[in-house]
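User: Before I run my own analysis I want an independent prediction to cross-check against. Here's the chain; please return only the structure tokens and, at the end, one sentence I can use as a sanity check.
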Amino acid sequence: MERENFSSRLGFILISAGCAIGLGNVWRFPFITGMYGGASFVLIYLFFLLILGLPIMVAEFSVGRASCRSAALSFDVLEPKGTKWHLYKYGAIAGNYILMMFYTTVAGWMLYYFYKMAVGDFAGLDAKGVGALFGSLLGDPLTMTFNMVLTVLVCFGVCLLGLQAGVEKITKTMMLCLLILMLALAANSMFLPGAEAGLKYYLYPDFNKVFEKGVSEVIFAAMGQAFFTLSLGIGALAIFGSYIAKERSLTGEAVFITILD
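Assistant: Structure tokens:
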């Protein structure tokens, strides 16, 4: 059977960005930035995004395009005889499984929240009340399992439709909606009380806060965020790299995705 390819460059970029842009940006980045000194941390994070994140993304794309295989088989195809690069696949497969356990559980929480919002259970609740509702969810493994299984089944359904008709088509729509939503949230934040102080904290570096936390701790956090936010190190991006056309520049595609991130 002939291997499918993306129908457009936009489809590839958005689906790759969809892998990279997510909880690392919306959830982890704000609180870790607040923890490690605002703009000072942001500058260090951007530095590691440039010198570590971008080259490793290009490397993963290269492995995927050269082998036209996933992380499970790419090094079996590429490794020189007598070397053990193929052993990497076991860590990659395990990493992707663990990652999917995490994401399907969190996506299940989101389905539950969507249902609770639709029926009005959040109406009138303050932060403490919402926290109590989340606590009750964590204490109900049956509800969490149901929502996680529902998430898995929906994702299987999308994959069954194929690359172009399923994954690419649906990701294009969802990623554009996500980017619009993030822009709307950012614009709304500009007009909240205290927005000026928040912007100053985020954009004006004060490296005294880095020294207060400890330089090594902040650097380690920035490096970890660079890897987490781009989904690097587990071969996920190599899968997308296996669909990049030969005439495309791998560095150019990686730069575009990093900018979106």
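Sanity check: The chain is about 75% helix and 0% strand.
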